Amino acid sequence: MRAHRHPAARVALGLLIPILLLALWQAQAEVGGARALAFVPLASIAAAFAELAASGQLLTDAVTTTSRALTGLVLGASAGVLLGIAMGLFRSVDRLIGPLYHAIRQVPLLGWLPLIGLWVGNGEAAKLLIVGLAAFYPTVLNTYEGIVHAERRNTDVGALFGFSRAQLLRHVLLPGALPLILTGLSQAIAFAWIATIGTELLLGAGAGLGATMSLAQAQQRMDVILVAIAITGLIGFTLNTLFARLRGHLLRWQPAIA
Amino acid sequence: MNVTTLFDTPAAASPPIDGALTIAGLSKDFTVGGRSLPVLDGIDLVVRPGEFVSIVGPSGCGKSTLLRLVAGLDTDFAGEIRLDGKRITGTDLDRGLIFQDHRLFPWMTLEENVGLALLNSSIPKAQRARIVAEHIALLNLAGFEKAYPHQLSGGMAQRGAIARALVTEPKLLLLDEPLGALDALTRIHVQTELQRIWLRQRSTMLMVTHDVEEAVYLSDRVIIMGAKPGRIRRIVDIDLPHPRERSLPQLHRLRDEILAELIQPVPTPGEPENLVRLPVREAM
Ligand SMILES: Nc1ncnc2c1ncn2[C@@H]1O[C@H](COP(=O)(O)OP(=O)(O)OP(=O)(O)O)[C@@H](O)[C@H]1O
Ligand SMILES: [Mg+2]
């Protein structure tokens, strides 16, 4: 078990199952016939990758989709944190907005698409709105919970030292809520990424990994679809890993769980 | 840097004039399950400026509640609490409270925790870092300035909490079993330290403790409380000069006397002593 602590060993272990799956995939592809249509041989996928990379399309797609996801994430998550704080701090805001928030949250994101299409069209604004909403929901909820459930033991100390409301928020409530806020943000990242690909698939047009998938489907280019899927997974994984690092740094004051 | 300079002010030599606590007709009820539960009943107490008073009493008799009221954390009570004649209506930097658990913020280093107490103090910003460092050193925590509370032992964290409470130099310091979490050896060390600090700072101290020996060693007076509802049963004067020798026979005699008093059943007016009191009866 000790070997798992070694970074190289850990990476090797993490790659084990993907490599096995790829081998299985290749085996299926070599069966030939109808199978080969669904299970494109790895060599063709590699060729499609080389083609997309050389034309620059892959980079454009990756950059477009990532920046779209991050823009929506930043907008949605900041709005979410702000609203979560306001709802957590002020009962009136909670009473005013809470029920509406919980009702709207029940509607699946893509359910809004037709309506949003009518309001703002099918362009960039519509995509950002959906991605932003995806990031917004979990951030509001977690921030609110974190603020509302501030521990009395901590707020008492703030009161003792004569903290104003703003000081209490900055030095006691927000740091106390940070673990939950970060949980909300990590959900927001995952949801925003899924929502970005989803809107690109559905609203097509323009650059983006989802748009490329959608186009490739129409052209029956299974190899291109698979390249786009692989890149989507890779970027999503990278975003998550980077955020996990940031989270670990921000929560370095917590006792290690292990 | 010599840490002792902090308290060697000329004012420390003369008797303190600030920090007189007056409690008159204080009663406090809690509502539990829709019913009113009297927790403190008719507490009258005058603590002189610079006096060290300890409170002992059975668990649940309202000692922590009393300290919270004096600290101003709970303002829902009947009666009056005054500090230097001024009615207490909320928290203020002129009163400090050390809780039974350390309550350092887990997200701040020791240094930041102690420094945060000075956020609203009148001490100039330029001097704060020095004062914080001095207090950390005073509680023997030098070298752990950058440690987070989870990296400190329980006793160290509790000493950190004491440093944080002292740094604002409150006129009245309330201590709720401040040394309860410490091992016997550290406890004796911090008791001595507490006595030294008190003799220098001459702030008024009101300390809750379960350790009668600690109470008689440190205090000018020991208040014995009874439970249900919380009342003052007896006040014992410890008329001995400070600093004291732990081995003083008088201290041991007083300790035994207080312990005997604590063990005695509370005489309930109107009820024969030997009657077994059933819960039902008590509820009526
Ligand atoms: N917030 C609260 N709501 C309801 N009842 C409370 C509350 N806080 C304290 N009490 C009750 O008040 C009584 C006194 O509590 P308190 O904590 O003051 O006791 P204590 O003397 O400090 O006990 P201990 O020595 O065990 O710390 C207890 O019966 C407790 O149940
Ligand atoms: Mg208590």
From TrEMBL, chain A:
<keyword id="KW-0472">Membrane</keyword>
<feature type="domain" description="ABC transmembrane type-1">
    <location>
        <begin position="62"/>
        <end position="243"/>
    </location>
</feature>
<feature type="transmembrane region" description="Helical">
    <location>
        <begin position="103"/>
        <end position="121"/>
    </location>
</feature>
<dbReference type="InterPro" id="IPR035906">
    <property type="entry name" value="MetI-like_sf"/>
</dbReference>
<dbReference type="Pfam" id="PF00528">
    <property type="entry name" value="BPD_transp_1"/>
</dbReference>
<dbReference type="GO" id="GO:0055085">
    <property type="term" value="P:transmembrane transport"/>
</dbReference>
<feature type="transmembrane region" description="Helical">
    <location>
        <begin position="72"/>
        <end position="91"/>
    </location>
</feature>
<dbReference type="GO" id="GO:0005886">
    <property type="term" value="C:plasma membrane"/>
</dbReference>
<feature type="transmembrane region" description="Helical">
    <location>
        <begin position="39"/>
        <end position="60"/>
    </location>
</feature>
<keyword id="KW-1003">Cell membrane</keyword>
<protein>
    <submittedName>
        <fullName>ABC transporter permease</fullName>
    </submittedName>
</protein>
<comment type="similarity">
    <text>Belongs to the binding-protein-dependent transport system permease family.</text>
</comment>
<feature type="transmembrane region" description="Helical">
    <location>
        <begin position="128"/>
        <end position="148"/>
    </location>
</feature>
<keyword id="KW-0813">Transport</keyword>
<keyword id="KW-0812">Transmembrane</keyword>
<dbReference type="InterPro" id="IPR000515">
    <property type="entry name" value="MetI-like"/>
</dbReference>
<feature type="transmembrane region" description="Helical">
    <location>
        <begin position="224"/>
        <end position="243"/>
    </location>
</feature>
<keyword id="KW-1133">Transmembrane helix</keyword>
Automatic annotation (TrEMBL), chain B:
<feature type="domain" description="ABC transporter">
    <location>
        <begin position="21"/>
        <end position="254"/>
    </location>
</feature>
<keyword id="KW-0067">ATP-binding</keyword>
<dbReference type="InterPro" id="IPR027417">
    <property type="entry name" value="P-loop_NTPase"/>
</dbReference>
<dbReference type="InterPro" id="IPR003593">
    <property type="entry name" value="AAA+_ATPase"/>
</dbReference>
<keyword id="KW-0813">Transport</keyword>
<protein>
    <submittedName>
        <fullName>Sulfonate ABC transporter ATP-binding protein</fullName>
    </submittedName>
</protein>
<dbReference type="InterPro" id="IPR050166">
    <property type="entry name" value="ABC_transporter_ATP-bind"/>
</dbReference>
<keyword id="KW-0547">Nucleotide-binding</keyword>
<dbReference type="GO" id="GO:0005524">
    <property type="term" value="F:ATP binding"/>
</dbReference>
<dbReference type="Pfam" id="PF00005">
    <property type="entry name" value="ABC_tran"/>
</dbReference>
<dbReference type="GO" id="GO:0016887">
    <property type="term" value="F:ATP hydrolysis activity"/>
</dbReference>
<comment type="similarity">
    <text>Belongs to the ABC transporter superfamily.</text>
</comment>
<dbReference type="InterPro" id="IPR003439">
    <property type="entry name" value="ABC_transporter-like_ATP-bd"/>
</dbReference>
